[in-house]
Amino acid sequence: MPEISKRAQLTPASPIRKFLPLAQKAKEAGVKVYALSSGDPDYQVPPAFFKAVKSYKAKTLNYAPSSGILEHTQAWQKYYLSLGVKIPTENIVPTSGCAEAILFALYAATDPGDEVLVFEPVYVSYKSFAVMAGITLKPVRLKPENGYALPSLSEIEEQISPKTRAIVVINPDNPTGKLWSKKELLMVLELAKKHNLFVIADETYREIRFSGQPECLLKYSNFKDRVILTDSVSKRFSMPGARIGCVASQNPEVMAAALRFAQARLSVGTLEQLGTAPLLKKAKGITDKAKQEYSGRCGIVSQALAKIRGVTFRPPQGAFYMIAQLPIADAEDFVKFMLTKFSYKNQTVLVAPMQDFYLTPGLGKNEIRIACVLKKPDLKIAMEILKLGLEAYKKNLSA
Amino acid sequence: MPEISKRAQLTPASPIRKFLPLAQKAKEAGVKVYALSSGDPDYQVPPAFFKAVKSYKAKTLNYAPSSGILEHTQAWQKYYLSLGVKIPTENIVPTSGCAEAILFALYAATDPGDEVLVFEPVYVSYKSFAVMAGITLKPVRLKPENGYALPSLSEIEEQISPKTRAIVVINPDNPTGKLWSKKELLMVLELAKKHNLFVIADETYREIRFSGQPECLLKYSNFKDRVILTDSVSKRFSMPGARIGCVASQNPEVMAAALRFAQARLSVGTLEQLGTAPLLKKAKGITDKAKQEYSGRCGIVSQALAKIRGVTFRPPQGAFYMIAQLPIADAEDFVKFMLTKFSYKNQTVLVAPMQDFYLTPGLGKNEIRIACVLKKPDLKIAMEILKLGLEAYKKNLSA
Questions:
Q1: Residues of chain A with CATH 3.90.1150.10
Q2: Which residues of chain B have pLDDT under 50?
Q3: Contact list, B128 vs chain A (CB under 8 Å)
């Protein structure tokens, strides 16, 4: 029997998704599970999407061009213009969510054996993509006690080697909920310039920020050759099941490569490209409402967390995640406990243990990530259950 | 300005897709272009697909599970059972077309620096995926004068090294239209066993075969640990724009890895998983009709090609492609000529030059691939135009 590859062995299971089978078992046993693990909101999709999809008239369903359906890339173009970014449609290639955009950006920037700098904790898919692409992520730690602020330049430069090819900036950040200040962004861009690196700007949560205006790194014309934007409609339009994102850059060589990668896998969903075009053209009304909603949801979770003894956290400034430090040693064990041994009035909560979001071994063992993806009344109940579960878990440990 | 990676530079542009901008220009100049370059049929999608998509009722559009929507994987399971293959739903992971399934299979089987054996000419996306994954494809040539038959074992073994991890078998084959005989399949499977290799079985065109019964390599239980199936609904249900395929294997380690790869990019289109489930459950009626249709289409192209002086070809046994050797030196130049300098009654034809389907430099320069994807009357006209274009091209060269 042939052995699977080393990269296959090393690609981690998603800490967000690996507990779904246990959650399923709990559900089958009649327990209601409040899922706060995945960034998968219960928030309504703008009806214009379904209207466009359902009005599809053709009897064939052909490949879209690898460069995207023109109406769709023009809609992205218009959307970026509303953020102050002028970009040709040729410099926008639709992808299957932000995930594929990240993979294309990594392929464009790196060869096997190269290194990419990330801030940890980091969105876990980066770890998998790095293994798949044969590269190494080098972590720079953001600390909750500093509000996840950028550390000193020297601390960052310590992780840069001759093999480093890119720095990843997720803004607003998943999982920390950090908003990058203009000063921090410029520091990273200047650092990239100094070391001749690409900057992979992951702006999936762009408009879900609770202060200031949406940022887009494509706007910084001094750095236009080094910024590779990875984007997605999943969160801002609440439609992760559509699998629509894009990779965009003002660097024509990066985009020519992205198009070749895109050609290899042919195209992105035809129906969803058509369905999202009207939303991209009128994004602001939709995203303003979404921002309001998630601001309220995060507020409720913050208030509830503040009342649980021994728990510390930083209220998020954007995205819809927050990290909580729990007064226990092993958050993964706690997550399992909640699904297999605990319920309150036949209800329990699923959150994501943070350990796998770190690259440095040993970090995050007492942390969980909470995704504020449920309606406010549900979040209130879920947080109450989390509190009771935590008490029960501690009691169970000391018993 | 940072340089893009070597793999980005080496990833080839698709010879199928790279002429689309020229075709677009011809269209804009009022010329009707018969597109026989891409496997993108004008054949109708089974209406049950659109019915299912349009009856989607939820107001949210959530991620599907990475392991697939259960109704969808159960439909694949039922479909495979109709081919005599018993496989648990856990051993089927939906992918974004066969393309992503191939990428997952390559990731599962290989590490950067490894080698994979392919038969050339080979479907071009393999070349791109190999570069992206940091591996090398080693070609074994199939020759038209032998009807693309498998060469001797010793010829194949010459290309196997200690770095070889897998053999790719596309059946029916794209681009040759070859059907693999049971004897040939068993020879390859035995060879894989002898050298402890995986077999990546690409069966996108399974039912589009003009003799015999659909084959599925998952059926060969003696080789179950080494077969990785990559599949797609794109051709058999005529819906490449849906981006639905799957990777399947009886090897649990391969599937655990495939699921981890799938988790990294989260999920495949929710609407299309729901839409294709009813088709997979009742595939035979649909695929029987498709087979009939493509048999007729390929027959028309064969008849027309037979009448063009100096052209040689092998009538396809399956899929819907055929390779033609033209009486010219540079097929790529001819394809450009057809789009930029030739038209007949304001019509022209786009075909794919074959050179890039080969790995061995210098092969295929006088060859084109014709995809029989248009209705019969259109194919008749297109072949007439191709004949006239060829005459004009030769005259133009000698002028």
A1: 6-44+285-398
A2: none
A3: 260-261, 263-264
